[in-house]
């Protein structure tokens, strides 16, 4: 495997202060049906005879055998096995698309492009030409007007004239879908849907992702986590039978030598959600060891009834006793909640 020394970097600071979604927006997604344009995502396209093979050698999951009816989670790692990006991958006609955090789209594209070399693969940023929309709740009837068939299984992909529709993991007991299609067409069709579904803030999708236990690597946590630390092995983001990719040796060693002592957990913190005190990269501290952090915020989103829900990467030992706090040992207390899936140590 070629050693890769280029880096993905971003000077992005924590997101500016924004108003949290209104309670009615959460209610629309949970009790009825809602859609939300997702400007927090970018899309990279890879085309050419060698596109699948090239990405297969770069990402943590199998891209070579990705068929047109499937979508897969994947990670992009540094040579040290630390995540530079997380993404959803799928085939759209003759291209492979990668859905990534928008703030990382340009640096990830730049890094990948450096290693194409003689491969017949062309990469481009398609963010400006497509729209990404999330749907949650009772949305099947409206979606059936856009697509001839709907994906029934998680990470099933269907394609049509309107673009791609992908079923993603349920959250809070509600089904969710991603629609990615030509921007002008999507915007035109969305106007017609507003009579049936409620348009809500994209921050509601962030909250749903948190409750689905679906981490998203952003600028605040670059190169902080081996994939298993944020449960990528549990949610299908790693293929341990595929060939080499950057950091593969470290990822495999962590899996088979039983060295995974940190995992991702779901938590709530009662703190003013209108500020940005809770954001990716904020460290966590345990009551019994205030001198050093025991974990880090991966993703965070305002909760409907106040406070912030978050995904936290944390030492497993820190969950056994004592308390965990945000920012400092005397900071706001974290209340841990059950994830929607079992971790390997919990499986029976």
Walk me through this protein's architecture.
- This protein has seven helices and 17 strands.
- It has 348 residues and is an alpha+beta fold.
- It has two domains: 189 residues, Probable tRNA modification gtpase trme, domain 1 (Gyrase A, domain 2), CATH 3.30.1360; 88 residues, Elongation Factor Tu (Ef-tu), domain 3 (Beta Barrel), CATH 2.40.30.
- The strands form three sheets. It has a six-stranded mixed beta sheet with strand order 8-9-10-7-1-11. It has a six-stranded antiparallel beta sheet with strand order 16-13-14-15-12-17. The protein has a five-stranded antiparallel beta sheet with strand order 3-4-5-2-6.
- The chain starts with 22 loop residues before the first helix and ends in an 11-residue tail after the last strand.
- 47% of the residues are buried.
């Amino acid at each position: 495997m070629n050693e890769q020394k280029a880096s993905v970097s971003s000077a992005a600071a924590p997101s500016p202060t924004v108003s949290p979604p209104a309670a009615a927006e959460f209610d629309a997604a949970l009790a009825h049906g809602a859609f939300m344009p997702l400007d927090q995502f970018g899309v990279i396209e890879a085309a050419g005879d060698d596109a699948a093979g090239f990405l297969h050698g770069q990402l943590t999951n199998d891209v070579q055998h990705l068929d047109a009816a499937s979508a897969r989670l994947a990670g992009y790692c540094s040579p040290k096995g630390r995540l530079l990006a997380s993404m959803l991958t799928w085939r759209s006609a003759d291209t492979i698309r990668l859905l990534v955090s928008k703030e990382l789209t340009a640096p990830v594209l730049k890094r990948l492009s450096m290693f194409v070399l003689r491969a017949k693969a062309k990469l481009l940023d398609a963010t400006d030409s497509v729209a990404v929309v999330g749907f949650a709740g009772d949305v099947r009837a409206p979606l059936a007007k856009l697509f001839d068939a709907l994906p029934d299984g998680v990470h099933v992909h269907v394609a049509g004239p309107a673009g791609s529709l992908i079923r993603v993991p349920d959250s809070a007991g509600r089904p969710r879908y991603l629609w990615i299609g030509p921007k002008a067409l999507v915007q035109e069709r969305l106007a017609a849907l507003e009579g049936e579904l409620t348009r809500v803030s994209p921050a509601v999708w962030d909250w749903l992702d948190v409750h689905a236990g679906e981490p998203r690597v952003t600028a605040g946590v670059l190169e902080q986590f081996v994939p298993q630390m944020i449960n990528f092995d549990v949610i299908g983001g790693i293929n341990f039978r595929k060939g080499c990719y950057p950091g593969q040796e470290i990822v495999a060693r962590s899996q088979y030598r039983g060295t995974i002592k940190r995992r991702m957990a779901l938590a709530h913190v009662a703190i003013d959600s209108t500020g940005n005190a809770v954001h990716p990269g904020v460290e966590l501290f345990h009551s019994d060891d205030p001198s050093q952090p025991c974990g880090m915020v991966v993703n965070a989103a305002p909760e409907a009834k106040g406070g912030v829900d978050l995904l936290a990467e944390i030492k497993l030992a820190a969950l056994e006793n004592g308390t965990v706090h945000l920012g400092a040992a005397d900071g706001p207390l974290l209340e841990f909640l059950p994830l929607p899936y079992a971790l390997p140590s919990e499986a029976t």
